[in-house]
Design goal:
Layout lengths: L2 H25 L5 H6 L6 H12 L6 H10 L5 H22 L6 H9 L4 H13 L2 H16 L3 H17 L3 H29 L3 H7 L12 H16 L2 H9 L3 H32 L8 H9 L2 H39 L5 H23 L7 H25 L8 H21 L6 H22 L25
Helix pairs in contact: 1-10, 1-16, 3-10, 3-13, 3-14, 3-16, 4-14, 5-12, 5-13, 5-14, 5-18, 6-7, 6-18, 7-16, 7-18, 8-9, 8-16, 8-17, 8-18, 9-16, 9-17, 10-14, 10-16, 12-18, 13-14, 13-16, 15-16, 16-17, 18-19, 18-20, 19-20
Amino acid sequence: MGKVQYGMMLGMVLVTLFIALIALVSGWRVRATREFTVAGRRAGWIVVSGIIIGALVGGSSTVGTAQAAFVYGMPAWWFTLGAGVGCVVLATLFAKPLRRINVETLPQFLVCTFGDPIRPFVAVSDSIGIFLTIPGQAASAITLLTVLLHWQTVPVFLLVSLLVIAYVFTGGAISAGVAGFGKLLISFTALLVFGAVALTMGGGFAAFQAQLPAKYFNLFGNGFWKDLGNGLGIVFGVLTTQVYVQAVLSGRDLRQSRIGTIVAGVCTMVFGLGGVAVGMFMKIHEPNIAPAQALPLFAAHYFSPVLSGILLGAILITVITCAGGLALGIATMVTRDLYQHYIRPQMRDREGILVARITIVMMVVLGVLIGGSDVLKLIISYSFLAFAFRADAMLIPVLVAVIGPRLRLNTAGAGVGALVGGIIANVGWNLTVSEGGAAVFIGLAGSVAGLLLGHTVSRLSGGKHIAPPVFTNTTDAARPVSLEG
């Protein structure tokens, strides 16, 4: 290993240890399951934004965006643009109804509208949708470490797994939130530096336009419906993903939750532009590299060893914390909505934390194995598929729950029908017609059809409307209310 690699390793180790220390110290005293999952509902806006950034900004926003920009240009921005818009919508329209009842998970929220039959469907489908994003983070981390260390496959897989597990293993949501905000500051700076240097060295936007095809500068360069579907899939996916809802529920009041979510959204939108600039620059100046290596090779070739190591360390932490935050969202639903509800109703805190940690380990190891197998060529493809899957399964039920009993669709059959119909339509389209893009529209149509069919069957079989929930969280309001917006 030469001096360059040693310098890069030094920089990467320094920033990685810094964030790891923050996560360890912040979560060391966690003792209760509720503290592990939703930070005891006492988080300020910094922790709220940190939880979201920790799970939202990762491999797809950094390595994956640069890779996609290398191949397609501006359409690579759809992931971070859609994610940012989704956060703003989550804060302004969904935060209040989500916080009006004292729950920890999205399944618990939907049970209040559609009854207990929907619980396992929501927990399993949302967990699958979240899990589909983890291999993309793993693939990004593997790419970064392979460029830096030149290790064999097995040691890199093990190192990535250990880093992700360590991130949330100790403190759960508290570790994820505090370390996530630290990561936001460091990685946001890194991507802005990368983007600014790429634009400056490349001669500016006009020089990029002169050297790349025109479609590289069109947000709909891959086709209007495909790119719009990818973007809307991300927006809707943010609104229906446990870990982002978990962040909103972690805030000590509505104001802190909204501020934290909006800060995360705005930063995410800007964040992706740095990766787009790097991808385009590398397409012009090093067109023969593997697209997935555009970002790490840019750092290695155009920065000093220690500085490139620090910047790549920031990106590595971004990827690691994202995978960890996603695994935490799955662990919360498995612990609360499956294990405790169906297996151990009298579960103690120590047991709940143990179940959550075991789930995290299993999800991370499996995600790393899939991510390293190169099932999908583009890292960002994992996220587009995963977000659209979650949106098609969950968006219609969540909208009905937020609007409340005014729609008169709050029956058990309606909820299950909407969820199952969306999944069948989404998966069917992806398998038989085309992957991604327009699948989100087909899935939403299937979800609406399933909602109406399930509601009709439920009413004909004598099913009743579920009584609206009574408000129990005195932090955000003073009187009982329903879920009506």
